[in-house]
Amino acid sequence: HEIPDPASIDIVGLTGTKLGCAEGGCGACTVMISRFNPHKNRIVHHAVNACLAPVCSLHHSAVTTVEGIGSVATQVHPVQERIAKTHGSQCGFCTPGIVMSMYALLRNRPQPSKLDIEEAFQGNLCRCTGYRPILEGYKTFAVDGGCCGRKGKENDCCMNREGGSVSQLYDPSQFKPLDPTQEIIFPPELSVSKQENKKLQFKGERVVWIQPSCLTELLDLKAKYPEAKLVVGNTEVGIEMKFKNMLYPVILAPTVIPELTVVQHTRNGILFGAACTLTQLEEVLRSSIDDLLPYQTEVLHAILEQLRWFAGRQIRNVAAIGGNIMTASPISDLNPVFMAAGCKLTVISKGGKRVLQMDDQFFPRYRKTALKPDEILLSIEIPYTRKGQYFSAFKQSLRREDDIAIVTCGMNVIFEEETNTVSHLQLSYGGMAPTTILAKETCKMLIGRKWNENLLEEACSLLSKEMTLDPSAPGGSVTYRRTLTISLFFKFFLTVQHKLAGDLKEQVMRVLNQMLLSQAVPLGQNEEDVVGRPIMHLSALKQATGEAVYCDDIPHYKNELFLVLVTSTTAHGQILSIDSEEAMSSPGVVTFLTAKDIPGSNQTGPAVYDETVLADGMVTCVGHIVGAIVADTQAHAQRAAKSVKISYKELKPIITIQEAIECKSFYQPVRSIKKGNLEEGFKEADLILEGEIHIGGQEHFYLETNCSLAVPRGEDGEMELFVSTQSATKTQQLVAKVLGVPANRIVCRVKRMGGGFGGKECRSTLLSTVVALAAHKLKTPVRCMLDRDEDMLVTGGRHPFLGRYKVGFMKTGKVISLEVTYYCNTGNSMDLSLSILERALFHMENCYNIPHIHGTGYMCRTNLPSNTAFRGFGGPQGMMVAESWICDVAMACGIPAEEVRKLNLYEEGDLTPFNQRLEQFTIGRCWEECLALAKYHYRRTQIEQFNRQHRWKKRGISVIPTKFGISFTAIFLNQAGALVHIYTDGSVLLTHGGTEMGQGLHTKMVQVASRALGIPGSKIHITETSTNTVPNTSPTAASVSSDLNGMAVYNACQTLIQRLEPYRTKNPQGTWEDWVTAAYLDRVNLSANGFYKTPDLGYDFETNQGRPFNYFSYGAACSEVEIDCLTGDHKVTLNMLKLISHNSINQTFPIFSPKGAFMQGVGLFTLEELRYSPQGILLSRGPGMYKIPAFGDIPTDFKVSLLRDAPNEKAIFSSKAVGEPPLFLAASVFYAIKDAITAARAESGLNGPFRLDSPASAERIRVACEDRFIKMCPPPEAGTFRPWAVQV
């Protein structure tokens, strides 16, 4: 069979399944594969990643996508309905994948447990919701939880509780019931159990895929093609071909060969065929444990523990045991377990079989095994354990769920009969060498020793000497990894010592407490008045069915071409030559764009034109766009782009903030805010301390990467752009600039975005300008959607900050004087960095009244991709530094941190450092109510008791306030327009200047118009945002879009109401349609523009006078954590958010938007870390290396409470912005971690302030605990080696 591409499932033209990462790490592309399983004699259903599932592998399979289970046009499935109606779909790009994960679970288990539901989503990511509403909605399917809909729980029904979330936000009793008998029928022609296996062969342009029908055939093929890859799940080969530019001309798929899929129970263990999937391995081990004696199951339990955290469910469903072994990854989760257990491997070739022991000889070098080229792995035998044998496996990773290991290990000890004397010991580690290794010398020295403290001490000493790493080792974290080898052995020692009592094991089941709400619709409000009601996101059902159209879902035009960027591979250099000859001769290539093709200006940028559309003679970062290949297919364009050869004269780059400070590499101006007399303040102070904190950057990780489609209109230079952008007007302006045409020839249209978070405020123009240029040159439509690794490489992210401070304070903890300096890593262009730095300065004191204060900010010019807007826009970095020095002050004074914070809080009427008076200042109420709701003082007592009783687990708690200014600090952006049409049938078409990216802006604008016009929201429709309906729009950003656009919509509606008033007066009993018809017949204009600008804004840095913000949003959060002092792991056991939301336009968004923002903040402050090489190369370019919070990272107890009776006169219908302010409240998790570390350090006699940079990763937590194990692995001396990654 001839096929376009053997490794592509995207040839059927369905758009519901989304592409989020192309490496099986986000779950957006999840579909369900159904097959008849002859071993089970039934049909099995599995969720899989479409991005890794080759079409060739689907023979005899049924594929179900999100479109196949329900539709808005016909009937939605209960799985689709519940995620929509429980507000679990915001931007919606991840929704189809989540729906299909849940659907696949229900097809296998119609009555799942809550744990089943949580585990089903281990391979899915969401960036908007914070996961909670998704789990709350799907918990209604659980047999052991969920809402009964008032159908059975009389006394303790959640719908009867005061403030119960379910009663206010959705009514489960209205949900469609799940009826398993009505599901899609498996095609009968695929269910024939006696189908003969036939050899299949598929031929692509560069790859031949062969599925042999029997073992003999496979061995013949392997002898003929010894370099051929055997592929079952394609979870490794697919990624190698996509991202590592590997090519395997012949691929063999052994999935139907019985000998490779067999499972046999032998006398000594269980034998698995090498093609058995990890899910099958898991199922067999679980069922076997029930039939075996407990002492026989040690290895089986250890494998299950590793499988629990092995990738996501979609990967485990297809990945094979043999593939995991033969990949020979040095950080494999399972190979250390197999090696420590001494598993037996049977390999076979045409020449015969042989059995290999899985030991340290099996992996001779990096990614190599002991197999000969013509041999294949036939099976693995996993042994039972015997009496007196103990086995454990451990894995440490950045994120608990779906993450690659930092260090992983299998540990096996056998004691002499009825003694504690070691007769056999195997310690196997991954992540400590180019291969999986055994600690042979350590094990050898411990044989014959008694299992006691003396053995422990010697083992730790031996491991510290044997488990060494080169300081420049790939992956970095050398000290941490070395320490983990000791810490994990210590855990094993304790586990064995306590006879596997599980003292250090985590609880599998997590109770997810419901959230607390505190907003109700005012009594007497008209039923048709939808303002303040929990209206479902208008697109939620379409998003859940896959019918919502995103940019790349737009049907392809005739003769449409595809564009792929060609980017710089050096951080700083002169371009000497560009050789595109090979690329131009590649199949399907049409042209290669360079700066010479630009008809207008090559200068671009959102605020200052200091960037180029295409590099011209010089590159200033890795990822600098040099050119673009345009071809007939995306695959052809990608292949050709990799063959463009660029030579450079390399120049010395500046990568880090420290390097920029040393070289005085700064953009101008330097900003400063000063109030009071700093020197006098320091003289008054009892104590003075100095410190600093580094706050790492953050990748936006919107699920939909940047996408643009440019369609030339054929006359007068007109062009239509479909772009995933937060700034339609800026896109229009910069495209017009590069093409050399007036802006009125360019129309930019935005239907919706799959997330933005600031990343598409201006960096989206990097792509749209190049795509428009290609369409202009070729006079044909051109499309480009960036792959995840490209998007992360070129678009920048949140600015890393370095904060240095000197603080003077009294012994009571009262802060008198503060001098703080901010350095932000701006990158290779200004972008929006000046405004970001200014906002950091505006928030440098957070909520604390400091009489004498001086803040200075520097923008560091570096050779990194330009950093840009991100939710919070510099505010979180500014406040994070403030909380660092307030924490240091508390430690220096020996006073609880919450008392120091409360002592320094602002009060009503106080002036900020920029001399804006605080009005309606309710932070005091937020603070006290947060403490009360969290039972803070009771928890503090319990924590102190816990910490006294536990040496290697510590708990901490922290409460943090926030004050966030609402307005664009660039005054001219605080304006908005709207256009409202009333048609003669009474329907209303609404357009405004904001864009929809999941925050529900369109939904809220419909609610505003509904109240203003006095009609049901069902009569109002918003199609899109476009520059030809509302011109000169401000970006959808700064948490002000509802305020600005809501007022503009209201203004337009008021104009129309005034025009309709005479007809309402003349016919008071008439209907809306009657009044509209009468006005039309009387030739009244039924279209109106609306406009709004925020009044009384303006600030001057020179005079430190003015009013930069319209108002402030306030809040407080309390978080409790528990850390593992041996590994650095932490879990959040409590989050309580107290927010001022006033009268929300839509009741759902002040609850779920803060949760999404908070979880994004949890990522920023505890998990997400951009890793750059010293040469400026981004090493973390996808979900494999860059970890955002997953379903399993949400707090066990997560509540949001809204402050009552706090009206806001400054915004539409007394609402208040909640999009950005809650993000910083996640700093409460960071400082709770720091509180726990403080307790751990006290065990080692360490007291007083200490530095903890953000994010508080497992590595930083572990190193900060500073115990005897850390001292065994001292860090290499700085300057004596080149690190793998640097702190930028």
Automatic annotation (TrEMBL):
Matching PROSITE patterns: 2FE2S_FER_1, FAD_PCMH, MOLYBDOPTERIN_EUK
Family: Belongs to the xanthine dehydrogenase family.
Name this polypeptide is given: Xanthine dehydrogenase/oxidase
Chief localisation class: other
The keyword Flavoprotein appears for this protein: yes
Keywords assigned: 2Fe-2S, FAD, Flavoprotein, Iron, Iron-sulfur, Metal-binding, Molybdenum, NAD, Oxidoreductase, Peroxisome
Cofactor binding, note field: Binds 2 [2Fe-2S] clusters. Binds 1 Mo-molybdopterin (Mo-MPT) cofactor per subunit.
Binding-site positions, FAD: 230-237, 310, 333, 377, 395
